[in-house]
Design goal:
Blueprint (H helix, E strand, L loop, with lengths): L29 H13 L8 H13 L28 H4 L20
């Protein structure tokens, strides 16, 4: 069955906010990427511990013109954006039997459409 378009106006596709950038076909930044990915693997995917490696990877991409040059502070690499003393959530509440939403008393609460 053929699909029908009932709108008379033309649909416009908006480009991504940061634009598009070419893939690294010639592996120009592969060493930086591999170091960053290895750091993520070693740190249980905690990206804040691999911040410098991701910064080096983005700098490489900008140098090789694989992405537009931008101020790294605008990309989240300023000192005030640094994550300090982040801890991985240990799920201690769940281990003790906590279930999200179980503490809510439904007899006294109503949804907005039930009022």
């Amino acid at each position: 069955m053929a699909s029908m378009n009932f709108s008379s106006s033309k649909q416009f596709v908006r480009p991504p906010q940061r634009g598009i950038f070419p893939l690294d076909h010639f592996a120009e930044c592969k060493p930086e990427k591999e170091i960053y990915l290895q750091c993520l693997k070693d740190s249980s995917q905690q990206h804040n511990k691999c911040r410098e490696f991701s910064k080096q990877y983005l700098e490489c991409r900008m140098e090789k013109e694989l992405m537009a040059k931008e101020n790294l502070e605008d990309l989240g690499y300023s000192e005030h954006a640094r994550v300090v003393n982040a801890k991985e959530y240990d799920k201690s509440k769940e281990k003790e039997g906590y279930v999200a939403g179980k503490h809510i008393d439904r007899s006294t609460m109503k949804w907005w459409w039930e009022k």
